[in-house]
Design goal:
It is built from 3 helices and 7 strands; from the N terminus they run βααββββαββ. The chain has 156 residues and is an alpha/beta fold.
């Protein structure tokens, strides 16, 4: 598997906005907190200063991880992908044959996955079992709780 991170244009913009905010506002707020804690006197026994410095380290780590992600990011162009098969960014309507409930999922990269928004990772047990399948296919997905059998109803 390549080291690339595949993102939609929208998600890339969100990440770029987040890192811009962290670098400007986040760093400014952190510097203010450290300066305020430093003003409280002796640094050797200043828990507030130690906590602020630790938070600063975590902020810089987060910035570093996001910058790394951005260097590996690739925009997904779905225009050349087949419409009759499930692929990344496909919106798939499936029926759980175990309980007859229907679900709609959008298959995304692991970095974009958000189950509350119906976005599942293409590498997840359900996502990987749906990849490359067509409408009408019955697909078993091995999940921690056992096997869920799906039928693909629609692909958009």
């Amino acid at each position: 598997m390549s080291n690339f991170v595949y993102l939609s244009k929208e998600r890339l913009k969100e990440i770029e906005d987040e890192i811009k905010d962290l670098k400007t506002n986040g760093r400014k707020q952190m510097a203010e907190r450290i300066a305020e804690a430093r003003a409280h006197g002796d640094l050797s026994e200043n828990a507030e200063y130690d906590a602020a410095k630790e938070e600063q380290g975590l902020l810089e780590l987060k910035i570093s991880k996001i910058e790394d992600l951005l260097t590996r990011a690739r925009i997904i162009d779905t225009s050349s992908m087949p419409l009759d098969k499930v692929h990344i960014l496909s919106k798939v309507k499936v029926k759980n044959l175990n309980n007859s409930k229907t679900f709609e999922y959008i298959l995304v990269s692991p970095e974009e996955a958000d189950l509350e928004k119906g976005k599942i990772a293409m590498t997840s047990p359900v996502g990987s079992s749906l990849m490359g399948k067509q409408v009408g296919d019955k697909v078993p997905a091995k999940v921690p709780a056992g096997v869920i059998n799906f039928e693909i109803l629609e692909i958009n």
